[in-house]
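Exercise 7.
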Amino acid sequence: MIVLVVNAGSSSVKYQLIDMKDEKVIAKGNCERIGISGSFLKHKANGKETIIESQFADHNEAIKAILDVLISKEYGVIVSLSQIDAIGHRVVHGEEKYSSSVIIDEEVMKDLVKFTPLAPLHMPANINGILACQKAMAGKPNVAVFDTAFHSKMPKVAFLYGVPYKAYTDWKIRRYGFHGTSHKFVANEVARVLNEPLANLKVITVHLGNGSSIAAVKNGVSIDTSMGFTPLEGLIMGTRCGDLDPSVLEYISSKTGWDLKEITNYLNKKSGILGLTELTSDMREIESAYAQGNEKAALVIDMIAYRIKKYIGSYSAIMGGVDAIVFTGGIGENMPLLREKALEGLEYLGIEIDKLVNNTLPYGTIAPINSNGSKVQILRIPTNEELMIARDTKFLVTK
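Solution. The predicted structure, written as tokens, is:
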């Protein structure tokens, strides 16, 4: 079975074509700047990278360009679109209705439109990506894989906020959590690496990237996670503030005269690492500035590590201990300094990192980074959300 994985953003579409026989990536790439001048398609296949400059007015044109390059004589990897058996889509929000991936039908599409107010920046793009694939490959099964699904079994004590109960029943205000596909993938990888059923393990999954979140996975179920009603809650991120007293919004308004939309933009796009350092949201650049003695870079690294440590401590408490901690995501996988700072001082929980191993890991490998005396397994595992989407797609289509 060959599965096309599509991750549609507001102005981009990322894709992977995966042969599920051996889970090999045949081709991958992304369309950037959809609906904006200077759009292009970056395509990787057969060990080569190709950049095709073209104007993509909308997602239909971007999807068409992707399909065209996959079957082109010059850059293609398949002879015909008929070789694609199914399409798996990343969908940000499944509300409470969808606790697992589903084959997309009319009812699902109506629900996705209905859920749009819960994720107005992401859902329209997800929907457009699905519609474009349905138009370009009529009759092929499309599968929705939800970011929120893995967290859907959280207990009420974890997902409810301290607001009137009718805010939950009438308006669906609750913690949903995101990055679920990544948390699910790495939790399962931990079980595989440790040769222990996930149902027997207590795992803390730490996904650190431009957007970051942590999950407490007990016996295979996410019972709590740091992101909430939106991806704004939780850790300090690239441009997002993370945990914040809601009264700050009114105070900012009194100082600036900004409306709610302007304040939300400020907290989502101008805060976090970017706002604190006044340099950049890129942690590679922050790490470089830290090495050169930049005080704000040092402060933000310490702040992020401090919050990770708080979540690890609280999640260890609610699970009654922890068997494994796994770091993933672009920052989690590639920033040993942050991993070390986040775990130092947790020896009383049986968490001990091997600093030498942590600092000398080969790029892109699955590796333990705990000391021999650590009671808790600590791992660095590259995430693979696309493969998780492809696996769910294969399972549903063959089923």
